[in-house]
Fold these 3 entries.
Entry 1:
Amino acid sequence: MAYGGEVSKDVPRRQWQDLVERYPNKVINVQNLHTVQSLVGPSLNTLPVEWWYALYRKEDLYLFCNEDLRYRTADSMSDVSDFLGLPSFDFNDVVNAGPYNVGDHTGCNIITTWNSTSTAPSSDGIPISDELRKEYMDFVKPYNERLFELAGKRCNW
């Protein structure tokens, strides 16, 4: 399980054990653990990335914004290829054919046309109030700033 198993009734996830030990008078009361794991957890990208930077030299790591793969696909692929020291390759023909493994299509040999993919963020997800959205964005902002500082680049979120 990606988030670790339950340790006890007071510690719902293994990686939170350290927090409970460091702050024994605090309570981790997760009303909706699924929401925390699916929305908040993945938004804290800097936490696992900081471990990578602790283990490896900054020059050996390459981070890119996922949105760049959608909106600057060929350039992003070239940037990754250059970082890896691979020979130059023109990704435009591959990119112009369409994205692979998108939506209900699985497998690397199935191309989906760009016209059938959404170019805008989905708005049909979980509806949340403007107030909650602001609270969430205020919460993740310092984590995002740490990530941008580590990566030496900013993402559009």
Entry 2:
Amino acid sequence: MKKIIFFVAIIIAAIIIGFNYLNPIKIISPLGSGKVAQEKKLAQYSYFALQKTNFPGSEIIIDKVFKDKENFFSYIFYFYVRGKKVSGLINVPKKSGNYPVIIMIRGYVDKEIYEPGVGTSHGGEALAQNGFITLAPDFLGYGYSDKAVKDPMEDRFLTYVSVLELISSMKNLNSVLENKSLAAKFDGKNIGLWGHSNGGQIALSVLEISGKNYPSALWAPVSKPFPYSILYYTDDIDDHGKALRKLVAAFEADYDSEKYSLTNYLNWIKAPLEIHQGGEDEAVPQRWSDILVDDLKKKEKEVEYFTYPGDDHNFSAGSWNLVMQRTIAFYKKWFTVDN
């Protein structure tokens, strides 16, 4: 009997060894340095994975006054993303009432010159004067936020997560407004997005991942497939993009970049959009927005499109006021505003 058991054990062992030889098992290092561990880590940021992710939100902390204007206050605020503190700028009307919230997402800014409100403050103040509460997150590594994560790709993907967590945190906004003895309140239901440049790319990604009806005004949004959407800008980097190309090549060796590209998930958008584009924009060529709008219309999405011949990326050649007027009118079309 013992001989039979020993013989069976030898056969089973031989089968296991043979199977592993033909189908080698990848062992993940407990230190997290293995290739499989890295794949698992960033796989959570594919659009399909993020679509299935729960974003519970966090507490909101309203801190010091940033500006005290006639019709509104600006404060530094904080919220949390996966245990890390993220700062931002909130504009709150002084007049008592129930207001929609607009989440404002800026484009790229050098960390050396960044402070809260860069890229959003001008528009945020105009919106606050016209009956909206606005919140503009700084993102990790900017403003008074905690340091960014070390992996540049993960840092990029965490911008979507940060906005989704901030939206989920809106359920806690009124309690902190009340604690600050502010008369304005979030109306509890109406949330819109505003995005400029790369912030437009983030906004489009958030709309796709969430599938929610957040009316969104996008100014010159970056809308090309990933990773071309970042490689396009390598001419402006000191090393002409050498380090970035290496980073992208390493990423694409382990991941299917198509799963991280917003252009593949436009069908998921359920919100109305208003897109503004300068005809002489050197940062985001008009043809990008032309193609985006055409694709959205083919998919029967609700989109308004305005172009401004001769104007630049920031609409600073004369169109800014008109763009802002149209943006405010767009939000008022979808939201009831106390003003």
Entry 3:
Amino acid sequence: MTTEDARVVLIDDHTLVRAGVRRILEGQPGIRVVAEFGDGEAALAALADMPVDVLVLDLTLPGLDGFEILTRARALRPGIKVLVLTMHASPEYVARAIEQGADGYLLKDSAVHDLVAAIHAVRDERVFYSPEVQRGLGEALRARRAQSRALDQLTARERDVLRQIALGLSTKEIAARLEIGARTVETHRANLMRKLDLRSVALLTRFALREGLLGPP
């Protein structure tokens, strides 16, 4: 754990948000805001030479979005820590940010209480998530585990049908390829949706891709 101040750069296109974040951080021991930017291009240009420890980054920005900035900042400065500060709480946003290298994910409505702790956490090689984000991650993990268990309950024929659905085949095409009736295909599709608790072909396709069902049968 370092005793030097965490040098922080803010990236958010809303001037009032940046001012509010600065107000939270001003005077906090161990934290120093060294720069702020309203767009990603300017921030990335400055990061090449600017000494910075923690990037506090919004995801919704004009031009380059936060995900692109996150990826490019990581490539530009591999040692930088990135704390996402956003209004988006959906698991899809959280998962994508984490996959692209975010060290923390903080919702703006909890910034007043948690921002300082979050910056110290990511600076000290720890992760930090807002309580709501933690709950969402836990629910997503439980749902994925439940779906994985459901996958084990599928029959060989149901897996065959699921694979063909994910390949984009129509009911008639699946029936012809598997040499079964179209109504049988429809029954299997309904059973798949019920067992996996997925209510659309798009969700079935995403599930099949994630579980690797499009590999060699």
